[in-house]
Amino acid sequence: MSLKILILAGDGIGPEVCIEAEALLGEIARQNGLDLSIEHALIGGAAMEATGVPLPDETLAACRESDAVLLGAVGGPQWSDPNATIRPEQGLLKLREELGLFANLRPVRVHPSLAAISPLKPELVANVDIMVVRELTGGIYFGEKQEGDDYASDLCAYSREEIERVVVQAAELARQRCGVLTLVDKANVLATSRLWRKVTTEIMAERYPDVPFETMLVDAAAMFIVADPGRFNVIVTENLFGDILTDEASMLVGSMGMLPSASLGTGRTGLYEPIHGSAPDIAGKGIANPFGIMASVGMMFRYSLAEPEIATRIERAIWSAIEQGECTPDIGGNLSTSQAGAAARDCLGEYFFPKAVFA
Question: Annotated catalytic, 145?
Answer without folding.
Answer: no
